[in-house]
Design a protein that fits this description.
The structure holds 2 protein chains of 2 kinds.
Chain A lengths: L1 E7 L2 E6 L31 E4 L6 E3 L2 E3 L4 E4 L12 E8 L3 H6 L11 E4 L9 E5 L14 E8 L11 E3 L7 E4 L10 E7 L6 E7 L8 E7 L10 H9 L3 E5 L7 H17 L13 E11 L1 H14 L13 E7 L16 E7 L17 H6 L4 E6 L23 H22 L2 H8 L18 E6 L7 E4 L16 E3 L2 E7 L28 E7 L5 E6 L12 E8 L4 H4 L8 E6 L4 E5 L28 E6 L15 E8 L8 E11 L2
Parallel strand pairs in A: 5-12, 15-16, 15-17, 17-18, 18-19, 19-20
Antiparallel strand pairs in A: 1-2, 3-4, 3-6, 6-9, 7-8, 7-10, 10-11, 10-12, 13-14, 14-16, 20-21, 22-32, 23-26, 24-25, 25-32, 26-31, 27-30, 27-32, 28-29, 28-31
Helix pairs in contact in A: 2-6, 3-4, 6-7
Chain B lengths: L1 H16 L27 E15 L8 E11 L2 H4 L6 E6 L2 E2 L1 E2 L7 E7 L17 E7 L6 H13 L19 E3 L2 H15 L4 H7 L6
Parallel strand pairs in B: 1-8
Antiparallel strand pairs in B: 1-2, 2-6, 3-4, 3-7, 5-6
Classes of the chains: A alpha+beta, B alpha+beta.
Chain lengths: 682, 216
């Protein structure tokens, strides 16, 4: 445990707080607390997590699936005073600070704490299974996750005191165990129809049967796509109603176009709120929270909800009973982009996107700007998230039966797609509306390493996630390539150096009509930008036998990264490129941080499970070759992980972030797109 | 509503007696059919035509001007199902003379129920005569972006290509159906649901959805 004493112009003077200075108490004996606990004390220490096969060998996580082992690591390289010391580890239900202060007595849920003597030398040998997967995560309520704390009782006095450490000292638990998010929630649901006349004013409504006993419940509105039907979203309506949401799926006037669809979304949301005294005999009256609205749209309806939100922001008179501030989340399934950046633009609302790799309608091909789903996502200026499913067709997002409108290998079909949708949509909505901390991990951790319990796991299920926090939430963007267009200067003003081959910084837009690589189209396979859009990034490549690097200097005034929790970036393999095709599979590389003292720490991105996924191996969009659009995935690495095993990296003085490629660092060859390199609070 | 159902029942019996071909379920494909390169060249048969009139107008949102409509034609067109296949990208816009048509159903088996607004003439019938004007699918576009000028240019293009009135061998049988009078679009939708059930029987969800009664 190294704590700063003083920061000087020359550097940092450090002082060690030694565990040995604290009072040692014989096992089982009661102790006199060193001091009373106060709220101002910082007893937080990350303890619970999962072991990794390589450095950093352990990562501390927020959520565990029910039935999965919860592990605890003591890093005696980082905390040498723990070496050879015998301590007790308590597993307890989460307590707030005030509860801990009022009752510091320790009582392990398992009947007795785990006693361990930490070996010197680091994490190896000091990772223990705290629970093999027996502690519950299913709450029986609409709450997701049961919060637990882990207490490191250093002096073994069976009391939390200032000598000890708690994973969960604060409002948030040390970790959460989560039940099956694909399973139905605690409520039985009812489905009713409502119509206020012809002209696309009929609605299919789902709500908890016990709604009369419940308070205000959020409203989820579903706007279907062209040729689809408002009765085709049972998989959303039933699932979310069982978890305490009111879901209204309405007739959508998509045939004429996006403005008509947007009008229908705006009107039906208003009609629903205006007719609560009539719907289902008035049972929903006083139970709909009109300030907690989620809009979900499919295909043309997916663009329609974005257009509706933009019109709402601009004051569309159709909305009499709600405002833009009441719409907390807009989510599009395979949306079109007819109207372009000025009209179909989510602005600052939290925006979410579903994309099916096998979609044969909104297919994402380079020759069709209308069909590129990512345009809307890239225009979102607030928090934004995305989930891409290889093998999912356009029709797989609804449950109307018939044609999946899918083309490509390894199709996953409707039941699999819906199971993934249930398991992802629930934590998405819970996280956005309630800030539920247990849900966040499901939105960004590599799918291979962590996904809802009931989510299907066949070889054809390949899921890529993008996750960006709201830029207004104190992130530090090292380089998002939106300013300083020279590849030698980052958007934060620092120097960028590299020896990678063919580095190009430009709009993320394939400028040809196919996904086949051709000269003069370095952004081949990129489908983030339509006409007028300017989402930018870089591409580059490396070949065997050459160690390649790409280094971003951190500007001096930004070098204190200690307030941040994660280094975050997104990356994608370049489709159909020979370097991608020759080593088809997850691509890995390493990331290194360097501090003012020249000390470095390096982590391979696949240490956490999974790398950057290969493009979906679909043909078309150009003859003969296989590989669909470039799919970015967000990688988030805890900054504290760079300090594991006693690496004395000074997070308050980070001078450089370097990406390392080639033998020894990950995949031997590759061509990569990279973007949104930033540090985030959470 | 009752008179309308009686009329439809009469028509249904007549049609079945005549051995009319009812739409069949489309094959269970996985992908989307390619859009015909020249939609206007695809033959269209007019198999049903009946005037309608409403007390309360509705918005004809299938053209840029979005006019109010309170009368016009209910048509059933038969054509290549691939042409009718719904897609999220731009679809061929349906025209009838100088008006756009509203697609009421998907036309899974090739039978499409359509509304074409038209003011009533002195004889109490819509001015537009669906047996005499060209009916065709034009350039793919969002209908809400199609204005009078665009319609004129599409009509000129269609005329140049030799598009004429739809063939209508069966249409004479329905001459006696008369005008459907309905209070508003909601009531008309119930009638349209019956027609879809007859001509495109696989579209059961659409029919059920249109039949949801007004909650009062």
């Amino acid at each position: 445990m190294i704590r700063p004493l003083l920061v000087t112009p020359l550097g940092l003077l450090l002082v060690s707080t030694s565990w040995s200075q604290k009072t040692a108490v014989a096992p089982g004996a009661s102790a006199v607390p060193v001091a009373r606990l106060t709220r101002a004390m910082d007893l937080q220490e990350d303890l619970a997590g999962v072991a990794l096969p390589e450095y950093p060998r352990f990562t501390f996580t927020r959520a565990f699936n029910e039935g999965s082992a919860v592990e605890v690591a003591l890093d005696t390289a980082s905390d040498p005073d723990l070496a050879d010391r015998t301590v007790d580890l308590y597993l307890m239900r989460h307590r707030s600070k005030d509860d801990w202060i009022a009752d510091p007595a320790l009582s392990d849920l398992r009947g007795a704490p785990t006693t361990m003597t930490a070996a010197p030398g680091g994490l190896l040998g000091n990772v223990i299974v705290l629970d093999p997967g027996t502690i519950p995560g299913t709450t029986g309520t609409t709450e997701i996750g049961i919060g637990y704390d882990v207490v490191l009782d250093v002096n073994r006095d069976r009391t939390l005191d200032p000598d000890d450490r708690v994973d969960g000292w604060g409002d948030e638990a040390g970790f959460y165990v989560v039940g099956d998010l694909t399973a139905k929630g605690p409520y039985k649901w009812k489905e009713v129809f409502f119509s206020s006349g012809g002209g696309f004013k009929s609605q299919d409504i789902y709500y908890p049967e016990d709604v009369a006993q419940l308070g205000l419940l959020p409203l989820i509105v579903v706007s279907h796509g062209n040729g689809h039907n408002y009765q085709w979203y049972d998989h959303i309506g039933e699932h979310m109603a069982s978890w305490g949401y009111i879901v209204m799926s309405h007739e959508n006037n998509t045939g004429p176009g996006i403005e008509s669809a947007a009008t229908t979304t705006l009107r039906n949301t208003n009609l629903f709120l205006a007719n609560l005294d009539l719907i289902a005999g008035g049972v929903l009256q006083d139970h709909v929270d009109s300030q907690q609205i989620v809009w979900i749209g499919h295909s043309r309806g997916g663009e329609g909800v974005v257009r509706a939100y933009k019109r709402l922001v601009e004051g569309d008179p159709i909305a009499q009973l709600y405002t833009a501030a009441d719409v907390k989340l807009v989510s599009s399934m395979a949306p079109t982009d007819f109207l372009g950046t000025n009209k179909s633009n989510p602005g600052d609302v939290t925006y979410h996107l579903w994309t099916g790799g096998a979609d044969d309608d909104v297919n994402g091909c380079a020759d069709c700007d209308i069909c590129q789903t990512f345009h809307l996502h890239e225009r979102a200026t607030g928090a934004r998230l995305s989930i891409s499913l290889h093998g999912a067709g356009h029709g797989d997002f609804h449950d109307g039966g018939g044609n999946s409108v899918a083309k490509g290998p390894c199709k996953i079909g409707r039941p699999v797609t819906h199971q993934i949708m249930r398991g992802y949509l629930l934590p998405l909505v819970k996280y956005v509306l309630e800030g539920n901390p247990a849900c966040q991990d499901f939105l960004w951790r590599q799918w291979e390493a962590f996904h809802p319990i009931g989510a299907p796991t066949s070889a054809c299920v390949v899921v890529d996630l993008m996750y960006r926090e709201d830029p207004r939430s104190e992130t530090f963007v090292l380089d998002d390539f939106q300013t300083n267009s020279s590849p030698q200067v980052s958007s934060s003003g620092g120097a960028v150096t590299s020896n990678v081959r063919g580095l190009v910084e430009d709009r993320l837009d394939d400028t040809t009509s196919t996904f086949n690589p051709v000269g003069g189209d370095p952004m081949n396979g990129m489908t983030f930008d339509g006409p007028g859009d300017d989402s930018r990034g870089i591409v580059f490549e490396w070949e065997k036998s050459a160690e390649a690097f790409l280094a971003f200097d951190v500007p001096p005034e930004k070098r204190d990264l200690s307030p941040y929790r994660y280094l975050s970036f997104r990356a994608a393999q370049a489709t159909r490129d020979a370097l991608t095709s020759s080593a088809l599979g997850d691509l890995a590389f390493s990331v290194e941080l360097e501090d003012l003292f020249g000390r470095t720490s390096r982590i391979r991105i696949d240490a956490y499970g999974g790398g950057i996924e290969e493009p979906y191996q679909r043909s078309g969009c150009g003859a003969s070759l296989k590989g669909w659009a470039n799919e970015f995935e967000t990688i988030r690495i805890r900054l504290a992980d760079f300090q594991a095993e006693g690496r004395r990296l000074e997070l308050r003085a980070i001078t450089r972030v370097t990406f390392l490629f080639g033998t020894g660092h990950g995949s031997e060859v590759g061509r990569l797109g990279l973007d949104e390199i930033e540090f985030t609070i959470d | 509503m009752k008179p309308m159902r009686t009329a439809l029942a009469t028509f249904l019996a007549a049609t079945l007696a005549a051995g009319a071909v009812i739409a069949t379920r489309s094959s269970q494909r996985q992908g989307l059919s390619p859009l015909p390169t020249n939609p206007g060249a695809t033959p269209i048969e007019l198999v049903f035509a009946q005037p309608f009139a409403l007390d309360v107008p509705y918005t004809h949102s299938w053209r840029a001007e979005a006019p109010d409509a309170s009368s016009g034609w209910i048509l059933v067109l038969r054509t290549d199902p691939a042409l009718l296949e719904r897609r999220q990208t731009a679809e061929p816009v349906l025209y009838a003379g100088s008006e756009t048509g509203e697609r009421v159903n998907n036309g899974d088996g090739g039978n499409l129920v359509v509304l074409v607004p038209s003011a009533l003439g002195a004889n109490g019938l819509p001015v537009l005569d669906p047996t005499k004007v060209p009916i065709w699918f034009g350039t793919p576009e969002l209908p809400e972006r199609v204005d009078a000028q665009r319609i004129a240019s599409e009509l000129a293009l269609a005329t140049k290509q030799g598009v004429g009135p739809a063939t209508s061998t069966a249409i004479r049988a329905q001459a006696s159906l008369g005008t459907i009078f309905a209070p508003d679009r909601g009531d008309l939708d119930s009638y349209l649901a019956d027609l879809i059930e007859l001509y495109s029987p696989t579209e059961t969800d659409l029919v059920a959805g249109l039949r949801v009664s007004i909650t009062r």
